[in-house]
Amino acid sequence: MKKIISSLALGFLLLPVAELQAQLKVNSDGLFIQNGTVFSTDGLTLVPANDWSMKNLSISKQPNVVIFPKYNSIQRMYRFSKPVDFEGELALSYEDVELNGNEGKNLVLAYSPVTSNNAKDFIQVKESVANADGRYIGQLFTKAILLSDITAVSMLASAIKPYSELEANNMITPNGDGKNDTWIVKNIQLYPNNELRIFDREGRVVFTMFGYDNSWDGMINGVPLQEDTYYYILTIDSGKGKKTGFISIVRDK
Q: In 236-249, which positions are buried (b, 16+ CB within 10 angstroms) versus exposed (e)?
């Protein structure tokens, strides 16, 4: 079984160019892939067991996260433009920054027959295997599966307290010197499903943003806020996590 992964990783590079041209054909009906041909696109690798045609079909890589009861998917999903039957070898790669709090050794493939971000629609492939460095995971499907979305999820709940890797700065000095000019939450890119609200001493909302990206520079409607201490609430994954605290704005005179 483990040979599957190495064959996926190396097969595409080892096939002669002439042989690839004979096995991959583009015509008016789309892309035709001959059975046994290694086809790779943007980190997703497919080796169909039968002749396979991608007629009116596209595959996109998206930074979507699926929230499972005890863990999350990685921050990478491949989405087919319409559900498709697939039989053969399938694998995906990922970067460390896309782990989303999971451990690579605990990951398995998960696929959904419909376009979805709902965990209940995904089937976990518990027998899927990864290569040695833990950044490539795949499986041989001996029977056709109906595939619309595919990602990787952890089989084990992380021993790390959820969202503990998020570290927020407590002060900004927006003076244009390139240091502390914006409010930084370390690792916020791992949790794009977030909402930030910042309040002044009177409890008035001075800033709000869905999908905070470390860009707030102490402004409200284009006007600099006065030097003071403000309170923030950062809600993560639709309320599954929350961080609160204070931010001080200090401006050079």
A: bbeeebebeeebeb
> Which domains occur in the chain, in start order?
12-154 (2.60.220), 167-249 (2.60.40)
The Cα–Cα gap between 197 and 207 comes to 6
Q: Is there a contact between 172 and 232 (Cβ–Cβ < 8 Å)?
A: no
Report the predicted TM-score, pTM, of the whole model to 2 decimal places.
0.56
Read off the pLDDT of residues 14-23 as tens digits, 9 standing for 90 and up: 334 344 444 6
SS3 4: helix
- In the structure encoding, which two tokens stand for residue 154, read together? 């952890």
Judging by DSSP bridges, how do beta strands 136-154 and 185-186 pair with one another? unpaired
Q: Give 80-102 pLDDT, tens digit per residue.
A: 999 999 999 999 999 888 888 78
222-225 contacts, C-beta under 8 A, 24 or more apart:
224/174, 224/251, 225/200, 225/249
